[in-house]
Amino acid sequence: MLELKNLTVRYGKHLAVDGVSFSVTKGEAVVVLGANGAGKSSILKAVAGTVALSDGSVVLGGETLTGIPAHKVTNHGIALVPEGRGVIGRMTVEENLRLGATPQRARASEDDTMAQVFEIFPRLKERRSQFVHTMSGGEQQMVAVGRAMMSKPDYLLLDEPSLGLAPIVVGDMFKALARVRETGVGLLIVEQNVRISLRHADRGYLLEAGRITGSGTSEELMNDAAVRQAFLGGDT
Question: Which strand (E) or helix (H) includes residue 171?
Fold first, then answer.
């Protein structure tokens, strides 16, 4: 189990995340919803070890990861797909993917994991020798997710996976993430696309000004009048 306990992040005097606590289990999808600036990305960065905690802790399988460098967090089985993808355009699909297989836990089964990535994203197999900068935004997002999978994570953190993608591509991406879940990987997703993220998640949390202001199952949140008004324009 991945546990966030009283997670608090400050940037100077700015309090970005204020005492956030929740957990994610393997094979589960949990989504954090909120507007721009709510602190969603800071939660993922804190879990991944790329920003320091001001207070609280990140616990994985009973072991505290707080203060561990980001590359060692990956060694423990947590992988981050950052907003903006972070792929290397002048490298091929396969070269980008293999960059993800740096943890010791991933090296022995690198080719098998690559085959699994290609099964989930067959388009990447077709274009394994293509330079990433020539690909569409949706295809680059596939590369980013595939690269994270190459580290053989137990938990995958996804920062706005739908950002900048056409609606049909967003649907395909979340269907692929459902297949990732089926392999036993836990998903922690931060999103502004409330409708599709709740459709593919088990549970969700609402974040405002760094604080959790609501939570529930996906069905409960989809049927919540306040959530519909704030995020879905009042749609039922």
Answer: helix 167-182
H or E segment to which residue 24 belongs:
strand 14-24
Residue 27 has pLDDT above 60, yes or no: yes
Q: How far apart are CA 130 and CA 16, in angstroms?
A: 39
pLDDT, tens only, 70-102: 989 999 999 999 988 889 999 999 999 999 988
**Do the beta carbons of residue 21 and residue 4 sit within 8 Å?**
yes
Q: What angle, 0 to 180 degrees and rounded to 10, lies between the N-to-C axes of helices 137-149 and 110-120?
A: 150
- DSSP state, residue 178: H
Beta strands in 101-200 (DSSP E): 155-159, 186-191
For the chain, the first-to-last Cα distance in angstroms comes to 34
Domain boundaries, the chain: 2-231
pTM score, whole prediction: 0.92
Regarding the domain delimited by 2-231, which CATH topology (the fold level of the hierarchy) does it fall under?
Rossmann fold (3.40.50)
Q: Is the pLDDT of residue 197 over 60?
A: yes
Name residues whose C-beta falls within 8 Å of residue 60's C-beta, 6 or more positions apart in sequence. Answer: 1, 2, 3, 76, 77, 78, 154, 155
Q: What token pair was written down for 175? A: 């269907």
Contacts with 143 (C-beta within 8 Å, 6 or more apart), sequence order: 85, 87, 93, 96, 97, 124, 132, 135
Reported as a single tens digit per residue, the pLDDT across 147-180 is: 999 999 999 999 999 988 989 999 999 999 999 9
